[in-house]
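Quiz preparation item.
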């Protein structure tokens, strides 16, 4: 990739990250630890090496030394996240270290995707990438993100009383607005779950962790079906579809909405086979009539689905209004082409009936569980771990 192409791709804020990816591995074991040492990088084009002067080693990026790490708050798909203080401005931020475990020739493509996507995205309900900062080594790259005090998974584990229905509507509306923005920009998140939904003390909900996100286009190109954490994975992914649309995000929204309403995960499968069986128990057995093309999905022949002709959503949520059940059913359509879009959901009468969604500023505040160094209870840690694992 030419330097000018790289800068067009990522923008000035991550020029250092692009430089790492562009230049390749460090030569002859030289280290940037001592600023007086010569740093020689291998060229990807034309062969040979070139030297990087000490004053240019950080590129346009600030040093991570300008940030004081306060505590570790979580682990995303492709990196560890810290709460940190910007010593220049005193602002509290989230500092995400890019995983470089197996990389020798630059940063992982997944991290480059996340950086380039987040630099394009500016929406109140999408986590903000402020800048990229670097350490003394080529493998020390950090994303500086806007800080949110809570993630929904931690809240659900630690809340004394569950969210009210008005509060659930407030949360889901914000998720849908952020998702509508993503989908209008041809981006599929591919890992929506409660632990990837962050909330500020002002009640603003933001979608985070774009390590698995992808840009899509027409015609659809094949993508790996091994995405989305199991409990939130759409049936077409479980059955091996090679093409993905925004509908996989919408299935995950249905799982999140149901989890918030029921105060527990809706489909907590222990394996892919178990996950499919739980879906069939809840929604009935799929067939060609309700899901054209179902029988041709790659993995259908590997499963023997139980014969279950009923949709049991109403029995699962007997207290939910007709409008709420319609919305859940729309999100849980087997046929991805018939599944609700974010725009469809935002127009749902469920959000216009009582109890009306509360305003974000009126959402309750909670203790900052993520800021505590102490471990959670074994039960809570186990449940959250299952929520997070693909």
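Solution:
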């Amino acid at each position: 990739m030419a330097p000018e192409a790289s800068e067009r791709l990522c923008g000035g804020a991550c020029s250092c990250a692009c430089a790492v990816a562009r230049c390749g591995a460090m030569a002859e074991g030289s280290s940037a630890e001592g600023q007086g040492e010569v740093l020689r990088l291998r060229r990807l084009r034309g062969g040979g090496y070139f030297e990087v002067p000490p004053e240019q080693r950080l590129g346009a990026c600030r040093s991570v030394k300008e940030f004081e790490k306060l505590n570790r708050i979580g682990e995303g798909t492709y990196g560890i996240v810290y709460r940190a203080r910007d010593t220049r401005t005193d602002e509290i931020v989230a500092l995400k270290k890019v995983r470089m475990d197996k990389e020798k020739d630059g940063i992982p493509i997944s991290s480059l995707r996340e950086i380039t996507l987040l630099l394009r995205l500016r929406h109140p309900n999408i986590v903000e990438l402020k800048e990229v900062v670097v350490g003394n080594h080529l493998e020390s790259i950090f994303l500086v993100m806007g800080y949110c005090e809570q993630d929904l998974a931690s809240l659900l584990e630690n809340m004394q009383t569950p969210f009210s229905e008005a509060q659930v509507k407030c949360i889901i509306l914000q998720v849908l607005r952020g998702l509508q923005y993503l989908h209008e920009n041809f981006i599929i998140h591919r890992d929506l779950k409660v632990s990837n939904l962050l909330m500020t003390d002002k009640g603003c909900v933001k979608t985070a962790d774009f390590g698995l996100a992808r840009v899509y286009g027409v015609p659809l190109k094949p993508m790996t079906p091994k995405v989305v954490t199991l409990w939130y994975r759409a049936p077409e992914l479980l059955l091996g579809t090679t093409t993905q649309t925004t509908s996989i995000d919408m299935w995950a929204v249905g799982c999140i909405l149901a989890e918030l309403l029921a105060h527990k995960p809706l489909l907590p499968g222990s394996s892919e086979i178990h996950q499919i069986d739980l879906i069939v128990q809840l929604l009935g057995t799929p067939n060609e009539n309700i899901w054209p093309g179902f029988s041709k999905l790659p993995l259908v022949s590997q499963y023997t689905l139980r014969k279950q002709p009923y949709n049991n959503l109403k029995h699962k949520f007997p207290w939910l209004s007709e409008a709420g059940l319609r919305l859940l059913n729309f999100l849980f359509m087997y046929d991805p082409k018939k599944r609700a879009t974010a725009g469809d959901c935002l127009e749902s009468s469920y959000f216009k009936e009582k109890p009306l969604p509360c305003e974000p500023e009126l959402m309750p505040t909670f203790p900052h569980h993520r800021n505590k160094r102490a471990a959670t209870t074994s039960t809570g840690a186990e449940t959250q771990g299952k929520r997070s694992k693909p």
